[in-house]
Amino acid sequence: MPSAEDTSVHQERPVVRPTHQDEIAAAGSELIGGRSGRWARLGSGPLTPVRVVALVAIGMFALGMVQKVPCYNWAWFRGASSQYTHACYSDIPHLFVGRGFADGLVPYFDRLSGDMQYLEYPVLTGLFMQVAAWLTPGGSIQYREQMYWMVNAGMLLICTAVMAVCVARTHRRRPWDGLLVALAPAFALTATINWDLLAVALTAAAMLMWSRQRTLAFGILIGLATAAKLYPVFLLGAVFVLSWRAGKWREFFVATLGAAASWLVVNLPVMVFAPEGWKKFYTFSHDRPLDFGSFWLIISQRTGISIPVGTVNTVSTLLTLFLCACILVLTLMAPRRPRFAQLVLLVVAAFILTNKVYSPQYVLWLIPLAALARPRWRDFLIWQACEVMYFLGIWMYLAYTTSGDKHQGLPTEGYQVAIALHLLGTLYLCAVVVRDILMPERDVVRRDGSDDPSGGVFDGADDVFVLGHAAAHPPRHAAPAVEGPRVEWGGTHGPVTGRTGPPGPAAD
């Protein structure tokens, strides 16, 4: 645990104001009086930074709901093309009928008519959908679809508030970075397409717990998030590679066991009493063909070749493993140990970029991670611009394919450009994060001498295993050596004993 002296020093350090560090934030602040205006003094009164971030996120969520008004009023119910031309499509009202909720069927237990057979979502997401169905009032089928979307929107709004608060509190000195999440245009546009915000909120809460060195709580929340969506399990990969360098294996195993236990508690009842329904998510994920947003679709459309699903699954898995191996090497060879948020972003992005589908709402997975990993408005807005263009591109492409002979919308070639822009935007975000890792002096979070303020047990911890140049050249922030073993392997230097780096805030 941190000492009293460390804690007092940490608490006395002032809150970082992005308007004093970021030229884009400073320019944007002119809309509310500039960085020296009265809004710059927020924090001492009732409008604390965390509350401001939460309120702004709620406001942006509401704007996203307004954007769906044409579909809510009529476009969801008058053919496919209208909901695409108005860019207001959502899975939620359609699956209310298509997955049996309108008929009172219980997900995973009751068999559906048609080819789907069972609900194809993880168990916790299925529970979320079922609770919304219970809260949906009766009436005509159109009215119930509208109300089902509205009830889900209310529940997802709670998830939004949780996400915003957790991101704003993860880095104690940088709560204003939460505005990157709250003001993200892609967040407002995609928040109610699907149920991803449930997993995003749980993942944000898990990262907050990790930053507070509550390892077991982190693991439990990761398990719950993985029971809602698959991607949160990759956070354990980031913990693994950082534990390799920092020697924090106890924390890794505690987090992993906590995640496995909470995931099993949620899944076990359905696994035992409805095994066929429980397996549907995994069989569907395995068997679904390559789909929208992925580079696989560009290859298939450009070549005219229908790539077998098995080939896509195998190559996609190998590519993900290769990128994860690259991230491991990067972590062990970096001049300073990468920050936890940086690695989480890279690992999750590696999974998304190589996947056979890159749905528009997947941007929600990355928005909180990007705000913590690279809190620079320029890079964040460049990436968001790419995501907004893709958001428009996919709906215009679907409008083109469903408008018959009218051909209203974006043709195939234009959609391929939108996919490429989508992928390049994510790659750009990853590239600037990798640059920060290789050139830590350019990392805005570390400019004040911090190590990994949201990294929990990794913040200020010593390195115990590094490779290459990093082994021969300890990090600049190194403090006088203290007792303790260290093993390094780099080039011809061989094993070296000793310790470098400042004493960690928590004792092993």
Would you report the number of β strands? 0
- Helical percent range? 55-70%
The Rg value, from CA coordinates, equals 24 Å
Form type: globular
In whole angstroms, how far apart are the ends?
Answer: 9 Å
Q: Helix count, per DSSP?
A: 22
Q: Please, what is the average pLDDT?
A: 87
Mind summarizing the main beta sheet? none
Indicate how many domains the architecture comprises.
Answer: 2
Briefly note the structural class of the backbone: mainly alpha
Range of strand content: under 5%
Low-confidence runs: 1-11, 36-40, 478-508
Q: SSE order in H/E notation?
A: HHHHHHHHHHHHHHHHHHHHHH
Structure description:
It is a multi-pass membrane protein. It comes from Streptomyces yanii. InterPro entries: GT87 (IPR018584), UCP010361 (IPR016570). By secondary structure, the protein is mainly α. It folds into two domains: 19-446, no CATH class; 462-508, no CATH class. It contains 22 helices and no strands. The chain has helices at 4-12, 23-28, 49-67, 69-73, 80-85, 91-98, 123-135, 141-170, 178-182, 185-190, 196-211, 215-226, 235-246, 249-273, 275-287, 295-303, 309-333, 340-354, 363-373, 377-402, 412-438, 469-472. It is globular, with a radius of gyration of 24 Å.
Strand and helix map with partners:
Blueprint: H1 4-12, H2 23-28, H3 49-67, H4 69-73, H5 80-85, H6 91-98, H7 123-135, H8 141-170, H9 178-182, H10 185-190, H11 196-211, H12 215-226, H13 235-246, H14 249-273, H15 275-287, H16 295-303, H17 309-333, H18 340-354, H19 363-373, H20 377-402, H21 412-438, H22 469-472
